[in-house]
Amino acid sequence: MLMLMFELLSMAERSTKASQSKSGPEPHVGIFWLLDGTLLTDSTPLDQAEPYGDHLTHPRSHIDVWDSWQRLGKVPVDVPYEEPPRGRVVFNRKTSQSELLADKCILERKSVVAEITNGLGLPKNVTLGSDSHYRCSKCLFGSDTEEEWDD
Ligand SMILES: [Zn+2]
């Protein structure tokens, strides 16, 4: 048992050193929304992330964070958490890569993706993906009248 723990520790040390020398600060995991063109994020450094299967993930849910932001007045109380485009950054422990899962409305905007990757200290080659959980009202119901650039 002691041997195993020692091995795990030295593995952790090695991977930490490797990622530090490669890309500066340790990557974060987190969740985010794009509310009226403004990116809102809540993130955690990897060493405080929560294991979830093969991944490390943010310990707080979209619902909990949105709820607390509503109480703080950071976001409007009449906007439900699942309405604006949103997403999540997780860390895949098998591939040692960060993965960014988000609504199409976010993935198609390169500047917003760059803002997320910079903000969370992610490498440029982060894996991007959409996720059926992360579809805003517009994606689900296709209300073209609410496009920002229309007004
Ligand atoms: Zn969308």
Architecture overview:
With 151 residues, the chain is α+β, with helices and mostly antiparallel strands. It has one domain. It is 34% helix and 25% strand. The protein has 5 helices and 7 strands. The protein has helices at 2-23, 62-72, 104-107, 110-119, 137-141, and strands at residues 28-35, 38-45, 50-52, 55-57, 86-92, 97-102, 127-129. Strand 1 and strand 2 form a beta hairpin. The model is unreliable at 8-23 (pLDDT under 50). Zinc ion (ZN) binds at residues 85, 103-105, 135-136, 138-139.
**Distinct ligand kinds:** zinc ion
Major sheet attributes: 7 strands, mixed
Q: Report the uncertain regions.
A: 8-23
Total number of distinct structural domains: 1
Q: Which of globular, elongated, flat, extended, rod-shaped describes the shape? A: globular
**What does the average pLDDT come to?**
85
**With helices defined by DSSP (H or I, 4 residues minimum), what is the helix count?**
5
Strand content: 25-35%
* Class from helix and strand fractions: alpha+beta
Integer-rounded radius of gyration: 17 Å
SS elements, strand count: 7
Distance from first to last alpha carbon: 64 Å
Order of helices and strands: HEEEEHEEHHEH
Helix content: 25-40%
Quick description:
The protein has five helices and seven strands, in the order H-E-E-E-E-H-E-E-H-H-E-H. It is globular and about 40 Å long.
Overview features:
globular; binds zinc ion; 7 strands; 25% strand; alpha+beta; 151 residues
